[in-house]
Design brief:
By secondary structure, the chain is an all-alpha fold. Helix content is 84%, strand content 0%. Helix 3 crosses helix 4 (62-101). The chain is globular, with a radius of gyration of 20 Å.
Amino acid sequence: MKQKRILLDLFLTFMKIGAFTFGGGYAMISVIEDICVERKKWMTHDDMVNVTVVAESTPGPIAINCATFVGSLQAGIPGAAAATIGIVVPSFFIIFIISLFLDNFLEITIVANAFRGIRIAVGVLIIHAAVTMLKNMHKDLFSCLLLGGAFLVMLLSDLLFWNFSSILLLFVAGAAGFFFYMIQKVLLWKGGQKK
């Protein structure tokens, strides 16, 4: 009975997130964090940062990956399935209904104006998610340098029209983090040996 209750809760929670959040995965992160961390206490802020990093690094939309991971943490594979189906169902039905009845949906003046306003709200949600994650992130000199370097590379690639892959940047940052971690381990081990 308890398992069915958590599965239903996961499904309904992520269905609500999927139905009422516009702008894709990055806009949903802020809502997912608010509901899963602040309200339902399903995870901590650190867990949410880790889930977001893994969801960003794995194939597929980030919101669906986040839902899958949260569901998995709560109720294993059935929880992952319930959360994933919950977040996908609203979008599927909304797009399906729009495609059936409205050929030129975005040409309707009211809809076009609504989407202009929604674009602004989506930008605010994305900025909110980034600021929240930045506040909760473990900060040390290496992390700050890596963050600043990645930001600078992406900014310069946009301004100077460099053809630089964000996936390559992800691999470089991951490799730098791995080597930094290994160097720390070796230094700690050598420090322990000297004592």
